[in-house]
Amino acid sequence: MTENKQRAESGGPGETADLEAEVAYLAKRHRVSSAVIREIIRNAGSSERSVVERDLQKGKSRR
Length: 63
Description:
With 63 residues, the protein is mainly alpha-helical.
């Protein structure tokens, strides 16, 4: 998990652009702000799509 957390926090310019594109895609797909997606990535420690979507669904079910 530490490796995933480091990967999510640090990255080169190409990885940062890919991550921002992924954040924008997920935000638009799930109709939430990109800040929510970034917060989930930060808390989960992983920018993997399945992990982010699972945590997002958990949060939506609480509302």
